[in-house]
Task: structure prediction
Amino acid sequence: PNVPPSVNYRHEPLTAILDRAASNWPTRTAIAFRNWRCTYAQLRRRAGRFARGLRDLGVRPGDRVALMLPNLPQTLVSYWGALYAGATVVFVNPLYMETELTHILEDSGAKVLVALDLLLARHSRLLRGSKLERILVTRISGALGFPLNWLYRLKAWREGKLPSLGLDGRRVLAWESALARETLFEPGENPARDLAMLQYTG
Result:
C-alpha cells in the first residue's frame, strides 16, 4: 500500500544521467580498474570523443553499435559514446558461440562492432566475413595504467595470448583511434522516439 502505482520519470535521454553526474560531481571517481581511474568529468569527455569518433566512421543516429567486451573501462566509454552519437547499443555476451553471435549481429543489423582482441581472435573468420562495416579492437592492457599495461602485454606475449589485432586502417581499427579527436559531440536524441538499446537475452 505504500508503493505508488506510478513514478514521474524524467523525460530525457540516458546521456543526461552522465551529464548530470559530470556536472554535479566532476572530480569523483567514476571508474576504478586495477591501477587506472577516471572521474565523471573525464568519463564524459572520453564518451564525447568516442561519439565523435563513431560519427567520423559513418555512424548515424539509429545505427546499431554492438559491444562484445567484458567489464572494462572501454566498455563504459563505448556504451556512453554510442549513446551520445545517437546510436542504438547492442550488448553481445562475450561467451556467445558463433551461431548466437551470427544471429545477433544479423538480426540487429549492427554496423559497428567494438570487441576485445581475444574475442575477435576466437571469432575472426566469422566477424571478418560478416556485414559489419567497422570493427574496433581493444586490449585489456588499454585499460591499465603504467607500468601494469606494459607488464600485462609482456606476460600475454610470453604466454602466446597477445593475438595480432589485424588492423587494416579501413575496416578493422584500433579502439583508441576513435578517441583521436578532442571535439565533444552533443547528443540530439528524442527519448520518446529514439531506441537506446537492444538487449538480447537467453
